[in-house]
Specification:
58 residues, mainly alpha, rod-shaped
Length: 58
């Protein structure tokens, strides 16, 4: 069993929670920015060549 001395302090738990939220937010930002960059490059290529790339069922 865990004694009170074995449990992390509330301050440490708070910092761990903030760290987890920050990492998840960073992943979302990286994915969002990466997708926007990819989309911008794809649009530039389509404008240059005049050929639209087909996506999905359309």
């Amino acid at each position: 069993m865990m004694n009170d001395s074995d449990k992390p302090s509330s301050r440490r738990l708070g910092r761990a929670g903030i760290f987890v939220v920050a990492v998840i937010a960073a992943v979302f930002v990286v994915v969002f920015v990466g997708r926007n960059i990819w989309h911008a490059e794809k649009e530039t290529q389509e404008e240059r060549t005049g050929v639209k790339e087909q996506n999905g069922l359309n």
